């Protein structure tokens, strides 16, 4: 086998691989430079985030249904596949016309650079990582050509000739450089992120002692309080923002008497309350996992807004902005109707985990997270829905989105097999800000039977429930439904999450015997 006269197909593949390798090295270099400067300006993240933002709502809904929390990884994975395909084409083109191939690589990086600069909250320097990617990718490909270039004069070099060894060394070296830069980028990111172990104030208005949940007695029921590590996470971010608490500030502007900016210490020095509140995502399907309950420590939203003095005759929405410029709207009248809306800085006795909004986020009981729970919050603008639209408003989701009364069966699991005899059917029910009055269970379409409720925490918190079921052998269907303290019964009318939350009853099938 001769390296000098490879068959055309092999040669095409080889050059496609050069294109891919050069691009991967370039992306790794750009990612590393971004990790050292502005992480979100990484070409990979800039393209990925733009794709997430541009994905039409139905496709995003489909992805969330199909892949759950892995939806972003799948979407971005597809982008990477497309980019590497283009890189392979650039490599093949470069074999014939080197300049054109190199220009394709530079063009690809250029697209990433433009997207990085167009991201909300970005600066002109955000183009630097993409420039680095362009230079490194093009240089790598150019260098691979020089190393592998086997002109007629070297036609006798053969399998073990210097040029072949050169190619192996060069490709191996570039691949190793890519891996090393990738690893270094990760290390830099985690180093820069640092810890979140900041001192939290003691609540001036603490929550009462927390009751014992049912989970100790009946395994399979969601714990009454969700541990931070198990708390569902939903956001548009590919990577968790690295917020430095010492330079972080919260600004209140718009229709206010006087614009104010608070440091973290100033915020934490205000009166703090501790509240048990259940958070729910509008994307949660009936019976789905995007719900969690925690004890939040924070400052009442009304106190924070009062510092600026709001003009409620003008404004009808609070437009919250996160550290990257992403926006979430909240109806002002709902936030100020007396419910425990807070700017939270603590979650279950710790600082907010980075995934959940460190150092501060909004929590409004009774509203879905996408119209209330802004994480990494840095600004609240008092404005009107006419004047400004938030991220999801632009994507046609509802603007006033109270959490719908619902319930979920945690145990037994759908399609599981239980032993004949007493089986515990159990789960959770929620009607934030109204409270749960009753949960009922229906077996095989027969009469609804009342379940026993777990301890009441607050009306803003979910309620555990269970029923001892005398299970007979065979296939069975189990459904549940909740009734709130206003007497409303959970509807069996099905609705999908878009645009204001799912509804309907969960019914599972299990076998016994
Ligand atoms: N900055 C920011 N805040 C955000 C989001 C986001 O994408 N970006 N997602 C919201 C949505 S849709 C929900 S359901 C909650 C989820 O909060 P969690 O991830 O802490 O559970 O955060 C909300 N806050
Ligand atoms: Mo959500």
From TrEMBL:
The keyword Cell membrane does not apply. Pfam families: Oxidored_molyb. The chain crosses the membrane at residues 12-34, 73-93, 100-121, 127-145, 166-188. It comes from Nocardioides zhouii. Residues 503-513 have a biased composition (Polar residues). This is Oxidoreductase. Residues 494-513 are annotated as: Disordered. Residues 239-391 form the Oxidoreductase molybdopterin-binding domain. GO terms for molecular function: heme binding; molybdopterin cofactor binding; sulfite oxidase activity. GO terms for biological process: sulfur compound metabolic process. It comes from the Bacteria. Gene3D superfamilies: 2.60.40.650, Oxidoreductase, molybdopterin-binding domain. Keywords: Membrane, Transmembrane, Transmembrane helix.
């Amino acid at each position: 086998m001769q390296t000098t006269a490879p068959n055309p197909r092999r040669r095409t593949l080889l050059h496609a691989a050069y294109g891919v390798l050069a691009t991967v090295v370039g992306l790794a270099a750009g990612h590393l430079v971004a990790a050292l400067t502005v992480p979100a300006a990484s070409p990979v993240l800039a393209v990925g985030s733009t794709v997430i933002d541009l994905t039409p709502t139905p496709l995003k809904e489909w992805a969330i249904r199909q892949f759950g929390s892995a939806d972003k990884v799948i979407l971005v994975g597809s982008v990477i596949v497309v980019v590497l395909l283009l890189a392979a084409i650039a490599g093949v083109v470069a074999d014939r016309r080197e300049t054109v191939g190199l220009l394709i690589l530079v063009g690809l990086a250029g697209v990433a650079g433009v997207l990085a600069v167009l991201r909300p909250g970005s600066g002109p320097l955000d183009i630097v990582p993409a420039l680095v990617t362009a230079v490194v990718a093009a240089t790598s490909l150019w260098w691979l050509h020089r190393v592998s270039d086997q002109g007629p004069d070297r036609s006798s070099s053969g399998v073990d000739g210097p040029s072949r060894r050169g190619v192996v060394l060069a490709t191996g070296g570039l691949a190793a450089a890519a891996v090393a830069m990738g690893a270094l980028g990760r290390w830099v990111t985690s180093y820069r992120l640092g810890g979140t172990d900041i001192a939290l104030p003691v609540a001036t208005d603490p929550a009462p002692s927390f009751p014992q949940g049912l989970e100790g007695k009946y395994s399979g029921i969601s714990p009454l309080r969700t541990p931070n590590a198990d708390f569902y996470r939903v956001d548009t971010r590919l990577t968790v923002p690295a917020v430095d608490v010492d330079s972080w500030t919260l600004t209140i502007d718009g229709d206010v008497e006087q614009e104010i900016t608070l440091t973290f210490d100033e915020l934490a020095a205000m009166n703090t309350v501790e509240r048990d509140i259940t958070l729910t995502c509008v994307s949660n399907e009936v019976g789905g996992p995007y719900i969690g309950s925690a004890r939040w420590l924070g400052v009442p939203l009304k106190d924070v807004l009062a510092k600026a003095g709001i003009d409620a005759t003008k404004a009808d929405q609070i437009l919250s902005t996160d550290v990257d410029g992403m926006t979430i709207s909240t109806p002002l009248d709902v936030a100020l109707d007396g419910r425990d809306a807070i700017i939270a800085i603590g979650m279950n006795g710790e600082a907010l985990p980075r995934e959940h909004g460190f150092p501060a986020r909004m929590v409004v009981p009774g509203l879905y997270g996408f119209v209330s729970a802004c994480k990494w919050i840095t600004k609240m603008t008092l404005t009107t829905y006419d004047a400004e639209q938030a991220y999801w408003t632009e994507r046609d989701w509802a603007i006033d989105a109270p959490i719908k009364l619902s319930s979920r069966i945690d145990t037994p699991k759908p399609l599981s097999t239980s032993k004949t005899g007493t089986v515990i059917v159990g789960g959770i029910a929620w009607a934030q800000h109204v409270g749960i009055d009753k949960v009922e269970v229906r077996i095989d379409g027969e009469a609804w039977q009342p379940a026993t409720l777990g301890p009441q925490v607050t009306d803003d918190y979910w309620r555990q429930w269970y029923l001892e079921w005398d299970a007979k052998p065979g296939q069975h269907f189990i459904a549940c439904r909740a009734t709130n303290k206003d007497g409303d019964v959970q509807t069996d009318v099905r609705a999908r999450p878009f645009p204001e939350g799912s509804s309907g009853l969960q019914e599972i099938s299990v076998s016994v015997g």
